[in-house]
Write a structure and sequence with these properties.
Number of strands: 4
Distance between the termini: 47 Å
Shape: elongated
Largest sheet: 4 strands, antiparallel
Radius of gyration: 17 Å
Strand content: 5-15%
Structural class: alpha+beta
């Protein structure tokens, strides 16, 4: 069964020249549209939100090794606006704790 794709710039077809696991959206392409739509705050897992309160309580981040959102970044300025970016050591300790080691 053949799969047809429409002319969509976000769909890529794996060929010998392209990697098997290519990204659908190139880095940075979606951000101008997201900012224009008001989604300028990114939680630590990468979800975009309109408010700091929503971003810091991201439900996807509960699946991280920390069990919560650690920080929120304003993608317009790339500055942390809430929380703190964990260090490599903090991440390592949280990962060990999550594994029960």
């Amino acid at each position: 069964m053949a799969i047809e794709t429409l002319s969509n710039p976000f769909i890529t077809v794996a060929t010998p020249q392209t990697p098997k696991f290519s990204r659908f959206t190139k880095a940075g392409e979606y951000r101008p549209d997201a900012i224009a739509d008001g989604y300028a705050l990114e939680c630590s897992c990468g979800e975009l939100y309109r408010s700091v309160a929503s971003a810091i309580h991201c439900s996807k981040c509960t699946n991280s090794v920390f069990g919560r959102c650690t920080h929120v970044v304003d993608i317009r300025t790339m500055k942390v606006v809430a929380g703190q970016v964990p260090t490599q050591e903090e991440y390592r300790q949280a990962a060990m704790k999550a594994r029960g080691v």
